[in-house]
Amino acid sequence: MLDPDFYRRYRVLPTPWFFQSSYQFYRAWVAATRTRVVAENFDRLDARPMIIATNSTQNQDFMAIRLLAGQRNVKMVTVTKAKNYHSRIMAFALERLGVVPIASKGYFILVDAIATLGRRPTDAQYRALRDHLERDAAVDDAELEPVLHRPRPIFGRPFDPQQTSWRTLVQSIYQDSLSETVRLSREAVQAGHHVQMYPEGTVSRRLGRGRNGAVQLAHALDLAILPVGMSGCPEAFIGTSPMVRGGEIRLRVGEPIALPKGLLPGDFRPFDPVHEAAHQASLQRVTDEVMGQLNALVDPPYRRAEGEVGPGKGTRAHF
After folding, report:
1. CATH number of the domain enclosing 242
2. Does this model's pTM top 0.85?
3. Which residues share a beta bridge with 36?
4. Looking at the domain assignment, is residue 141 inside a domain?
5. Which end of the chain has fewer CB atoms < 10 Å from its terminal CB, N or C?
């Protein structure tokens, strides 16, 4: 669980012995299965750290770009969803491979609701809680009363509905968590690492709509964004596992996108809901540019379908 204790102990830079042994094992596995990872214009990942924006068509496809980066002596960390840390085995590996955790609003809503209700909320209940969190919409479902009014700890912080609202506390938890994501990313950048992340925020065979997190992180760290389209991953990987079975994975590196001067005001606070809403148009404009490049960089089967923005996954996308 991504509570304050988690962030206090978390180390974002790879643990040398674990990273090297994992890398060498994976490299040998790729060779044994005759899986080819080829790239165009990979030299655009120069010595200057950037936000590497990639599409995601398979749950573990970051392994392909990280493998190629290792072969080229390019340092890189990967941003991954908070829910991946709820598996002990995966958490052990992620904390040693150079990974930055990022939590969505939906993650905090769902983890708290499941713990409080003893079950996963329905999609309609999740939407009601999300609308309440984001827009202060009224919640009419009596089954959600315990979530909004039962005293309890929420992600390591005490919740007393007599002192503060559930909405106010969860907003604060979300902002504090994303501040930690920025801090950990900055630590990696200062050590010379690129930061790879998925602007779609979900796995989809065809390219979906882009979210503006990559642009906000690029602004916070004063970095350019480099789109990298990945093709062939669903066919090369075994199911949802990180292991490959053969075939060819193709990476095409696009042109770096520098954020325009004056895109955002100097007092812009990344991942602050008020600031996000106020500057949504500017954030989305650059996001659309990134997604446009990605759409041109992937093979036709992975491109955005005409008139589609990608499938939704309801509550499963967050936890």
Report:
1. 3.40.1130
2. yes
3. 248
4. no
5. N
